[in-house]
Structures are given as structure tokens and as C-alpha cells.
Design a protein that fits this description.
CATH superfamily of the largest domain in chain A: YjbQ-like
Largest interface: A-B, 55 and 49 residues
Largest sheet of chain A: 5 strands, antiparallel
Number of strands of chain A: 9
Strand order of the largest sheet of chain A: 2-9-4-6-7
Organism (chains A, B, C): Platanthera zijinensis
Number of helices of chain A: 4
Shape of chain A: elongated
Oligomer: homotrimer
Protein name (chains A, B, C): Secondary thiamine-phosphate synthase enzyme
Helix content of chain A: 25-40%
InterPro entries (chains A, B, C): UPF0047_YjbQ-like (IPR001602), YjbQ-like_sf (IPR035917)
CATH class of the largest domain in chain A: Mainly Beta
Chain lengths: 192, 192, 192
């Protein structure tokens, strides 16, 4: 029931033949391929499986409190870079402690609405809440807790130049403050 | 109290001596090692620390609602590939929004039972629950929430060809639907 | 509103000019740069963007139950290694099932206090709790649940030799046991 294993290796003189797909093992010894490297690289330099890193900060404008689908925004920002990776990982890091990143349903906005309902219910807010940290308002401490519940970091596989998510998955930015500011996400791409 | 630092570096002509262990620093300048590369590569090609990527989709058959230990299943699927990495990271990505991946206790099945008890208690379900998203049944919206609570992605260090988890840690697949389907996990290995 | 994209590529003969910053694209074809490689490497060997991996286990002494800021401890342990990476990812893996790692506020200790208050409130403990797994005491099963709520793994971007967290972010070790032991964190650095 498993897909074929894709294996990539970047030895000093490793090269993939132009027709190699991610589902074909491609480990060449350094000595055997030394003579073919220059040719492969010059004729198909864009397909050469070099190890690449890319890093960028994406800014999401201030959102209202709640859960927001940001997949299309993210893909618009990094899609061109993603297309250069046959296999890799995309890492997303939200640089804030009162919002969160998560992966969830990408179709019915009721799911995002209900998730906000849950978060507001499970973390007490208001005069009866037991928090000591209240200087920035009643939504401040609950926002910190929700940030750790869902987390501020995501890693998504890259396959053939795209984020390899499931059919119904999307990237959510969950804003936990009543009066939010723009949110910064450091995106790091790594792969071949 | 700290273990020695293991340092790996893949410069274009970097090579590790055959005896190098993961706990020995091994950064060579490109010029110094240029003459030794071919020899090292030809004599110990399997130990040569090339950067490798591997990616595979593992399918876990439908499970009943609850928490399931899947470490042995995962290791059976990727163990042979893992063995080729001295140092790296293994990334697991569940392509669904109504199940989750987490790391927890690997010995007493009561821990998995109690965790399911907690999840069913903390996320309301049934006629009194406040959800708008109910078309797929009473367990649908709670499943989405639990998926974000535990998350759908894990990254585990690879050390000397094995997942470097603690003695009592295991990989859990938590199924949040009453009537589940098979679940797909994209596994990405990266390292040297 | 986005920062310039930083792009790094390690082809067999790729080289960055000594003045290249992480915000400048630097993809060279293998054939064009073949003649400049040796020179760049010999004159600026420390700046050569080779792919590097480093792995180390950091031990945090036993902490009392609650949330603890460990950023400075972590940076003290890995700072020297971090400084060698222009762009990359730092991965932290806690090898335990009754504690957790999370990122949250780094300034007001009340935030850590209130987070512990929340965790103790949301996960029942004591004679009325519904747990079957109680052999190691009333705090044992709640500790396992909290470990999966916050998670045992973190990935943080590295930019210009430093952890690229937001101004108010810090790394927390959350200890969920009443009588804790030292906690082991496997740190894996990868980048260029």
C-alpha cells in the first residue's frame, strides 16, 4: 500500500539523470559519476539536485480574533521558490506569543468558527479567570495559553515543487488577541 | 553533563575518515582534502557523509477511535532507509484533519486509554455541543479540534541510523473519528 | 512588506562570494564557478556555505513542577555552534513523556505561572480524576496528557548565526511531574 521510496543524495559529484523522478532511487558513487557531472549540470542545470536553503519573512496583515485560512497567501509568497524543490521541507515559524499556526480543514468556514468557539471556552477569560498576567487586557493571558496549545511552528513536506498536504488540509493563522497587529512568519525552505 | 558535540559538514570535497564517529568534529577545508576525496570515496563509499533526502508515504490501516502506538509499524517501513543516516531528522506528516500524531508513553496501554478519555472530555460532543459544523456527525467537529490540539506533524532526530527517542517514548496515531479510514503519513528523512 | 528572499544552494562547485549576505540570491551553475571555487574556499574557508549538521544532547537539571524559561541555558550550550550557520534550522527534542517544550513569552514570569495554573485546571488530577494509569502517583497521567498538549519537539529558524525568534519569544521547558528528574534535549542543527 506504500508509494515507492524517493531517495536523493548529494555527494560531491552526485548527479541525477535528467529523467530521474522523485520516485526513483538515485544514489551514485562519487567516483563513478565524476565524468558525467559536468555534462549533466551544463545541460540540465535547473534540474540538478543541489541542496538549497531559502529563507523569507512573510507578513500577514492584522486579522480579527479567530482562525484564518492563509494557505493561498503563503503559496503566493513562496510558490515560485517552492517550485525549485523536488523533495524537501517547508518550515513556518510565527514570531509571536499570542497567535498560533496550525493545519486544519480548508473548506468549511464553520470549522474555523467552531475552533475559535472551543478555544474561547476552554481557556477562561474575564473577571472570574484566575490569571495574574492581566496588564494588557482580559484577552492577553488566554492568548498566550492558546499559542502554546496550537503552537507557533509548522513543518510541511515539499514534493515535486509543492506543499504535500492532504486534500482537505490548509494552513491556519489563529489570532488570539482582540486587537491584533500584523504577524510575521519566518519561512525556511530546505531540500533538493 | 553534556555529550560531545557531533558536527558534520558536506563541502564539495569534504570527506570523513573511515573511523570518524558522529561525536567527532569533522570539518575539512575544500582545498586540503581535494586530493584525498577520491580515495576516501572509493574505499568507504557507504560511509561517505553525503547529504541525503528520502521521502515515502506510509499508510496506516483504519484504526478504531482512540490512541494507537505505531512506532514498530513506522520503523518497519523506514528502518532500512534510516540505517543509512549517521545524523539527521525524520519528519512525519499526517495528511488528515481529524486525526493526529503525537509522541507519548510506549509501554502501558492505559496511558493511551486515559488520553482518549481526556480528549473526549475536554472537547464537547453530542446534542449539547455548540458546533455549527455537524454535517458529518457529532464526532466530526471534535475530531478537527483534537487534530489541532495534538498536531499532525512530528520531527524526530536520527542518530546512528535510528530514531533517537527516549526510553519510554513512542509514536502515537490518535484517531478521532468513530468510523475511520486508512491514514496517510508522508515521511521525509534528511541527513548525512 | 516582505523581506528580500535569501537563497542558498550547495551544488558540488557552488560558492558564495565573501561579501554575499543571506539576503542576496546566490545560485551559481556548477560549470561557471568551477574555476573560482578553490580560490573562494582557500581565501574565505570559514564563510564557505557548506551544508552542516550538528547534534548534541543538552541536559537540563531537575526543575520544580511548572513552566521554566530555558533560552539562555540553551543558547549557552549551542551558541558557538549556531554562530557558524548563516541560514538553517535548529531542532529541539525532549526525550520524555511527562514534560514538554513550547515557545512563549520571555519577560513576565506571571505568564509562566498562569500557564501552569491552566494546565493543572484543564487536566483533572486527584481522587476524582478518571485515570486508570495511576501507579506512579496522581500527577503521572496528567503529566502525560500535558506532554502531548504542548508537545516535546520544537523547530526554530537560524538566521545569521542566531535563533530567529520574535522579540518576546523564549523557549520553555514545562515540567509536569511533582518530583522531576533531569531532562534530556537532543539538539540538531542543520544549515549552511
Amino acid at each position: 500500500m506504500q508509494a515507492a521510496l524517493a531517495f536523493f543524495s548529494a555527494t560531491p559529484s552526485m548527479s541525477l539523470p535528467p529523467s530521474a523522478s522523485p520516485c526513483v532511487k538515485a544514489r551514485h558513487s562519487t567516483t563513478e559519476d565524476a565524468s558525467t557531472l559536468a555534462g549533466a549540470a551544463s545541460s540540465t542545470s535547473k534540474d540538478f539536485p543541489s541542496v538549497k536553503w531559502a529563507q523569507k519573512t512573510v507578513v500577514v496583515p492584522a486579522q480579527r480574533r479567530g482562525c484564518h485560512l492563509i494557505t493561498s497567501k503563503i503559496v503566493r509568497e513562496i510558490g515560485q521558490d517552492l517550485s525549485g524543490f523536488k523533495c524537501g521541507l517547508a518550515h513556518f515559524f510565527l514570531q509571536h506569543t499570542s497567535a498560533s499556526l496550525t493545519i486544519n480543514e480548508n473548506y468549511d468556514s464553520d470549522v474555523r468558527h467552531d475552533t475559535e468557539t472551543f478555544l474561547s471556552k476552554v481557556v477562561p477569560e474575564g473577571v472570574s479567570a484566575p490569571w495574574k498576567h492581566t496588564l494588557e487586557g482580559p484577552d492577553d493571558m488566554p492568548a498566550h495559553i492558546k499559542s502554546s496549545m496550537f503552537g507557533c511552528t509548522l513543518t510541511i513536506p515539499i514534493t515535486n515543487g509543492q506543499l504535500n498536504m492532504g486534500t482537505w488540509q490548509g494552513i491556519w493563522l489563529c489570532e488570539h488577541r482582540d486587537h491584533a497587529t500584523p504577524r510575521h512568519i519566518v519561512v525556511t525552505l530546505n531540500g533538493m
